[in-house]
Amino acid sequence: LHITGLIFGGVGMVGTLAATAMPQWRVSAYVDGNIVVFETIWEGLWMDCISQLGIRLQCKFYDSVLALPPPLEAFRALMCVAVALAIAAFLLAIVGVKYTQQRGKDGPQAVSIFILAAGVAFLLTGSLVLIPVSWTGAGVVRDFYDPQVPVPLKRELGAALYVGWASAALLLAAGAIYCHCWC
């Protein structure tokens, strides 16, 4: 179980880092019957990108932190904290697994406190990832079906959201495994 939790936590940590860096949080939607599409727009936490005919990709970082909407600033902060906490949880899990294997000859009660700390940190990290990813996903779906939003401004769920949901699930599973091992 410890090794499985370590694998889940490691993959969840890498996924959290990838979801934070990816610009595909919101992707342009093609709602009308127009099948000729020249541009694809990606919106992320750090930059916007425009792909023209799938050949040329231009990305631009946001100019000013002060000009960003407050939810985007909060999502950035939550994801950065989640990345740092995921790395700390992974390191705690490595130490805990190593300590438990060394002390394993003392009996089944020799589970280290590092295992519990890693489990709690993984659970907290999974929750931190889930908040901005789910909030963004809910906003995209709400705006997509809102008739007041103009068609060019409608967006679809981007790949980064799916990576974030999968990472959150893996992190929560790793946390549950380590907390179960502690009990």
Automatic annotation (TrEMBL):
Keywords of the record: Cell junction, Cell membrane, Membrane, Tight junction, Transmembrane, Transmembrane helix
Chief localisation class: other
Gene Ontology MF annotations: structural molecule activity
PROSITE patterns: CLAUDIN
Localization per record: Cell junction, Tight junction; Cell membrane
The keyword Transit peptide appears for this protein: no
UniProt similarity note: Belongs to the claudin family.
Protein name: Claudin
Organism: Leptocoma aspasia
Gene name per UniProt: Cldn8
